C-alpha cells in the first residue's frame, strides 16, 4: 500500500504513514462491523439451541438488532457513581477496547495482507492479551462497589492461571514451526498432514494441544463455562455492574473483539490460517482471506455452541482445571514434543 | 527523526510515570503508574531493536508481576491518617535511605564523568549476530554458550518455588469442599440410590 501512496507523488515517509493509517482503518472498521454481526449470530445460535426465535424484529431476520442496541446505548446517559474513582472508572473501558483492537495489528489475513509482519508476532499477541485483564481489574476496583470488586479479583486470578498453559501450548506450535512470525507459522503448515492437509491440528501430538487451547481460550475470554467474572446469579453483572451507555458498550465491543481474536488464533495456529484445508491446486484460487474467515466463523460457532449448552464451573473447579490439569499436561507435552522433534530430526 | 521523537516521548514518559509511582497518594494509582513505566520501557527496548526483550518485559512484568501487585494492593484497606502518623517514626530511616541513594547518584555521575570503563573488545561468541533474529541470538547465547549457568539459575528458582510451597502448604484433614472428580465420575445410580417400599406407618432404616 505504501507504493500506491508513493505513486500519488508523496515522499516515502508520508506514504508509509498514510498507508499505516489506512491499514489500521481497514482492519478496525470491518472488525467493528463484524463484532456487531457476530453478536447477532451469537444470539441466534443460542436461540436455535434453546428452541427460541432470537432477535427477529429489527430489519430482515433481525439483522439490524445489534445496530439498534448500539444506537440505544449511544443515546443513554453516562452515569458515574459518586463514590467511584473517576479517572480510573473512565479509563477502564477505554483500556479494554484499545487492547482488544491492538492485538489485531499482527494478524495475517492472507499471505500479504498483514499490518505489521513482525518477527515476534505470537509473543506480541501473548503480551497484548495478558493486558486485557487490566480493563477488568481497573473497572472492578474503581467502581468502589463489592460485586465489581469480587469480579475483578476473580478475573485477575483466572486470567493469570490460564495464560500459563496458553503460553506452553503456544511453545509447542512454535517448536513445530520454528518461528514466532504468524505468517511463517501458517506457511509451515502447508502440506503438513500426510502431504495433503494444511493443518497442525491433525498431528496426534498437537490435536490434544488444540483441544486444551480451545478450552483455555474460553477461560481467557471469560466465556461460559468460565464466565465467573460476570456470573449474573452471584455478582449482578460483575465488573460491568456500575457502567452504563457507551462505557458499557466499549466493554461489550472489546469482549467480542477478543473472542474473535481467539477464534482467528485457533484457525491460524492449528488449522492452516489462510491456506485451504487441503493442499490441492484448484482450492488456491479461492482468496486466502475467505478460508481464514470461514475457519474463524466455524470456531465462533463452536464458542456459542459451548455457551448455549454447558453450565458454569464453580470457582475452585476452574482453578483446579487450570493449575492441576492443564498446566502439568501442557508442560509434559512441551517436553514430549521437543523430544519427538529431536528424535525425528525436525531441526536438521 | 521519528526515532528521536519516539525516544524522547518514551523516555520522558518513563521518568514522569516513575516519579508518579512515588508521588501518587493512592497505592493502586502507584501500581498503575508503574505499569505505564514498564510499558514505555518496552517501547524503548523496541527502539534499540531488542523486540524480544520488549515482548518479555510486557508478558512477564506487565502481564504477570504487576497483576499480582495490583491484586495485593487492591485488597489493602488504606487509612491515610495512619499513613501520616507513621511519618515521624520512619523519618530517620527515610533520611538514611535518601542519603544512600544520593551518594550512589553522585558516585554514578562522577564515574560517568571520569570516562568509559575499559572492558576490552567483545570476542567471538557474545558479539551481535546481525543475520540472526533477536529470539534466535538470545536462544543461542542462553542454550549453547551459557547452558550450565542457565540451568543453575533454573534450579535455584525451582528450589525457591518448592520452598515457598512447602512453607505455605497446609494439608487439611476434613475433605469438605474438596472434590474428588474421579470418584464422582465412577459413581453410578445402582450404588447411589436405594429403592425401599416401607410399610404404612413405618420409617426406613438408613
UniProtKB/TrEMBL annotation, chain A:
<keyword id="KW-0520">NAD</keyword>
<comment type="subunit">
    <text>NDH-1 is composed of 14 different subunits. Subunits NuoA, H, J, K, L, M, N constitute the membrane sector of the complex.</text>
</comment>
<dbReference type="InterPro" id="IPR018086">
    <property type="entry name" value="NADH_UbQ_OxRdtase_su1_CS"/>
</dbReference>
<dbReference type="InterPro" id="IPR001694">
    <property type="entry name" value="NADH_UbQ_OxRdtase_su1/FPO"/>
</dbReference>
<keyword id="KW-0812">Transmembrane</keyword>
<dbReference type="Pfam" id="PF00146">
    <property type="entry name" value="NADHdh"/>
</dbReference>
<feature type="transmembrane region" description="Helical">
    <location>
        <begin position="321"/>
        <end position="343"/>
    </location>
</feature>
<dbReference type="GO" id="GO:0016655">
    <property type="term" value="F:oxidoreductase activity, acting on NAD(P)H, quinone or similar compound as acceptor"/>
</dbReference>
<keyword id="KW-1133">Transmembrane helix</keyword>
<comment type="similarity">
    <text>Belongs to the complex I subunit 1 family.</text>
</comment>
<feature type="transmembrane region" description="Helical">
    <location>
        <begin position="159"/>
        <end position="180"/>
    </location>
</feature>
<dbReference type="GO" id="GO:0005886">
    <property type="term" value="C:plasma membrane"/>
</dbReference>
<dbReference type="GO" id="GO:0048038">
    <property type="term" value="F:quinone binding"/>
</dbReference>
<feature type="transmembrane region" description="Helical">
    <location>
        <begin position="14"/>
        <end position="41"/>
    </location>
</feature>
<keyword id="KW-0560">Oxidoreductase</keyword>
<feature type="transmembrane region" description="Helical">
    <location>
        <begin position="118"/>
        <end position="138"/>
    </location>
</feature>
<keyword id="KW-1003">Cell membrane</keyword>
<feature type="transmembrane region" description="Helical">
    <location>
        <begin position="88"/>
        <end position="106"/>
    </location>
</feature>
<feature type="transmembrane region" description="Helical">
    <location>
        <begin position="283"/>
        <end position="309"/>
    </location>
</feature>
<feature type="transmembrane region" description="Helical">
    <location>
        <begin position="249"/>
        <end position="271"/>
    </location>
</feature>
<keyword id="KW-0874">Quinone</keyword>
<dbReference type="GO" id="GO:0009060">
    <property type="term" value="P:aerobic respiration"/>
</dbReference>
From TrEMBL, chain B:
<protein>
    <recommendedName>
        <fullName>NADH-quinone oxidoreductase subunit J</fullName>
        <ecNumber>7.1.1.-</ecNumber>
    </recommendedName>
</protein>
<feature type="transmembrane region" description="Helical">
    <location>
        <begin position="6"/>
        <end position="24"/>
    </location>
</feature>
<dbReference type="InterPro" id="IPR042106">
    <property type="entry name" value="Nuo/plastoQ_OxRdtase_6_NuoJ"/>
</dbReference>
<keyword id="KW-0520">NAD</keyword>
<keyword id="KW-1003">Cell membrane</keyword>
<comment type="function">
    <text>NDH-1 shuttles electrons from NADH, via FMN and iron-sulfur (Fe-S) centers, to quinones in the respiratory chain. Couples the redox reaction to proton translocation (for every two electrons transferred, four hydrogen ions are translocated across the cytoplasmic membrane), and thus conserves the redox energy in a proton gradient.</text>
</comment>
<feature type="transmembrane region" description="Helical">
    <location>
        <begin position="56"/>
        <end position="78"/>
    </location>
</feature>
<comment type="similarity">
    <text>Belongs to the complex I subunit 6 family.</text>
</comment>
<dbReference type="InterPro" id="IPR001457">
    <property type="entry name" value="NADH_UbQ/plastoQ_OxRdtase_su6"/>
</dbReference>
<dbReference type="Pfam" id="PF00499">
    <property type="entry name" value="Oxidored_q3"/>
</dbReference>
<feature type="transmembrane region" description="Helical">
    <location>
        <begin position="90"/>
        <end position="112"/>
    </location>
</feature>
<feature type="transmembrane region" description="Helical">
    <location>
        <begin position="146"/>
        <end position="167"/>
    </location>
</feature>
<keyword id="KW-1133">Transmembrane helix</keyword>
<keyword id="KW-0560">Oxidoreductase</keyword>
<keyword id="KW-0812">Transmembrane</keyword>
<dbReference type="GO" id="GO:0016491">
    <property type="term" value="F:oxidoreductase activity"/>
</dbReference>
<dbReference type="GO" id="GO:0048038">
    <property type="term" value="F:quinone binding"/>
</dbReference>
<dbReference type="GO" id="GO:0008137">
    <property type="term" value="F:NADH dehydrogenase (ubiquinone) activity"/>
</dbReference>
<keyword id="KW-0874">Quinone</keyword>
<feature type="transmembrane region" description="Helical">
    <location>
        <begin position="31"/>
        <end position="50"/>
    </location>
</feature>
<dbReference type="GO" id="GO:0005886">
    <property type="term" value="C:plasma membrane"/>
</dbReference>
<keyword id="KW-0472">Membrane</keyword>
Amino acid at each position: 500500500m505504501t507504493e500506491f501512496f508513493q505513486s500519488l507523488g508523496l515522499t516515502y515517509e508520508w506514504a508509509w504513514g498514510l498507508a499505516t493509517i489506512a491499514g489500521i482503518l481497514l482492519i478496525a472498521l470491518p472488525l467493528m462491523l463484524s463484532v456487531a454481526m457476530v453478536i447477532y449470530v451469537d444470539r441466534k445460535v443460542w436461540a436455535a439451541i434453546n428452541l427460541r426465535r432470537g432477535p427477529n424484529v429489527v430489519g430482515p431476520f433481525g439483522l439490524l438488532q445489534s445496530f439498534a442496541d448500539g444506537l440505544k446505548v449511544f443515546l443513554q446517559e453516562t452515569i458515574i457513581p459518586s463514590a467511584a474513582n473517576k479517572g480510573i472508572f473512565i479509563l477502564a473501558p477505554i483500556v479494554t477496547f484499545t487492547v482488544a483492537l491492538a492485538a489485531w495489528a499482527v494478524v495475517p489475513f492472507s499471505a500479504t495482507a498483514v499490518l505489521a509482519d513482525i518477527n515476534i508476532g505470537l509473543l506480541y499477541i501473548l503480551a497484548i492479551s495478558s493486558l486485557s485483564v487490566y480493563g477488568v481489574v481497573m473497572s472492578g476496583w474503581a467502581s468502589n462497589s463489592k460485586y465489581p470488586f469480587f469480579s475483578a479479583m476473580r478475573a485477575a486470578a483466572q486470567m493469570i492461571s490460564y495464560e500459563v498453559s496458553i503460553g506452553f501450548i503456544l511453545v509447542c506450535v512454535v517448536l513445530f514451526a520454528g518461528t514466532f512470525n504468524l505468517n511463517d507459522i501458517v506457511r509451515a503448515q502447508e502440506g503438513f498432514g500426510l502431504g495433503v492437509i494444511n493443518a497442525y491440528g491433525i498431528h496426534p501430538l498437537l490435536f490434544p494441544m488444540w483441544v486444551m487451547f480451545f478450552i483455555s481460550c474460553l477461560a481467557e475470554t471469560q466465556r461460559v463455562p468460565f464466565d465467573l467474572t460476570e456470573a449474573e446469579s452471584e455478582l449482578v453483572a460483575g465488573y460491568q455492574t456500575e457502567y452504563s451507555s457507551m462505557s458499557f458498550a466499549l466493554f461489550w465491543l472489546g469482549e467480542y473483539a477478543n473472542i474473535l481474536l481467539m477464534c482467528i488464533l485457533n484457525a491460524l495456529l492449528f488449522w492452516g490460517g489462510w491456506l485451504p484445508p487441503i493442499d490441492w491446486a484448484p482450492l488456491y484460487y479461492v482468496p486466502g482471506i475467505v478460508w481464514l474467515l470461514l475457519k474463524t466463523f466455524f470456531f465462533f460457532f463452536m464458542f456459542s455452541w459451548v455457551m448455549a449448552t454447558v453450565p458454569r464451573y464453580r470457582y475452585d473447579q476452574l482453578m483446579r482445571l487450570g493449575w492441576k490439569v492443564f498446566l502439568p499436561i501442557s508442560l509434559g507435552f512441551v517436553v514430549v514434543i521437543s523430544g519427538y522433534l529431536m528424535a525425528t530430526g525436525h531441526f536438521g | 527523526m521519528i526515532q528521536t521523537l519516539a525516544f524522547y516521548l518514551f523516555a520522558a514518559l518513563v521518568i514522569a510515570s516513575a516519579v508518579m509511582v512515588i508521588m501518587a497518594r493512592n497505592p493502586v494509582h502507584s501500581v498503575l503508574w508503574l505499569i505505564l513505566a514498564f510499558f514505555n520501557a518496552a517501547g524503548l527496548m523496541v527502539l534499540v531493536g531488542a523486540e524480544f526483550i520488549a515482548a518479555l518485559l510486557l508478558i512477564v512484568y506487565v502481564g504477570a508481576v504487576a497483576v499480582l501487585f495490583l491484586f495485593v494492593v487492591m485488597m489493602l484497606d488504606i487509612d491515610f491518617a495512619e499513613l501520616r502518623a507513621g511519618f515521624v517514626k520512619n523519618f530517620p530511616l527515610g533520611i538514611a535511605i535518601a542519603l544512600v541513594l544520593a551518594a550512589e547518584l553522585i558516585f554514578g555521575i562522577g564515574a560517568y564523568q571520569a570516562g568509559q570503563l575499559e572492558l576490552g573488545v567483545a570476542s567471538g561468541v557474545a558479539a551481535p549476530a546481525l543475520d540472526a533474529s533477536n529470539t534466535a541470538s538470545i536462544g543461542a547465547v542462553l542454550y549453547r554458550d551459557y547452558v550450565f549457568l542457565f540451568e543453575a539459575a533454573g534450579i535455584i528458582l525451582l528450589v525457591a518455588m518448592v520452598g515457598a510451597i512447602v512453607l505455605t502448604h497446609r494439608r487439611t484433614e476434613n475433605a469438605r469442599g474438596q472434590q474428588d472428580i474421579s470418584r464422582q465420575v465412577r459413581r453410578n445410580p445402582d450404588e447411589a440410590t436405594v429403592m425401599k417400599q416401607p410399610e404404612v406407618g413405618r420409617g426406613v432404616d438408613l
